[in-house]
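In response to reviewer comment 3 from the previous cycle, which asked for concrete evidence that the modeling workflow produces usable outputs, we include below a single protein chain processed end to end. The sequence was submitted unchanged, and the resulting structure tokens are shown without manual editing.
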Amino acid sequence: MLKGVAASPGIAIGKVFLYTKKFAEINTRNIDESMVKDEIAKFENAIKLTKEQIEKIKEKTEREFGKDKAEIFEAHLMLANDPELYDSVINMIKNEYVTADNAVNHVIEQHASMMESLDDKYLKERAVDLRDVGSRIINNLLGIVNVNLSELDEDVIIIAKDLTPSDTATMKKDKVLGFATDVGGRTSHTAIMARSLEIPAVVGTGNVTQNVAGGEIAIVDGNEGIVIINPSDDILKEYEDKLNKYKIRIEKLKELKDLPAVTTDGKQSMLVANIGTPKDVEGALKNGAEGIGLFRTEFLYMNRNDFPSEEEQFEAYKYVAEKMNGKPVTIRTLDIGGDKKLPYLNMPDEMNPFLGYRAIRL
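The workflow returned the following structure tokens.
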């Protein structure tokens, strides 16, 4: 049994599909001056192909999930069109006589590392997008074709080190029972997409990929953050029963979601949702929430090395308020301390931290 972050609720039982990517072997050799033009032409062709691929993914995502979900690929297109990155690669090929793939790898990694060193969480996260675009350019340069998740022909549980925006956008959704990844947190792209697709997911397991070869039976419990590989007959039966009960419960709740919240003696109530990230508001609205009863703000402070800026907090709260379109939103003050510690906030050891330095008492 492996523990991770319960990223998207639900239970999935099925065959493992181990999603691995071919490792691009970068050509580190130097080239002759006579080859510079050819390498630049290869790079320009790869950039053109990359932009065409991203545009198709963006259109598909917008068609299937709406404009909001496709915005990330607008960012990918902007990165692919970035004149600074383009010029840096061209200059490196011209001045250092290196192959196009070597130049792209160097420039992308240099810029991504710089982004990761910044205090701004938004820019830190853009490093993932930049590497995603960079990998696509390099693969196009080297002719590497990875497994296409849009061609899945049976129901599977996808197990991967991580899933990029491109991976989740192109996968065949009706064949994916659940996700489990080595890395990621509740606010990672994989987690957000899993909740949006209502697919059970556990992320941040550390090493789930090292425990499978593909084809095993696995259980992904997105309610508890548990992944079980090759379960015993008893555990399998237990989870099959849980899954059936969960499905029945969800179907019953779906029938009720658009009905007014009225007690048997005729008193009207408001049915509101609790959310942990801005993107969770979409699920709340989809399920008929009349407001946000509790917006947990810890997500802004977790999985980072410093405090969020005022602007970052404002944008998160603004996003939810605008999505709720006048419906009430209650934002909870930061609830840190006790079992929720921040690496950049030194707090004293206490006999009972829940009664000490916690939340508003900080």
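The mean pLDDT is 87. We consider this sufficient to address the reviewer's concern, and the full set will be provided in the supplementary archive.
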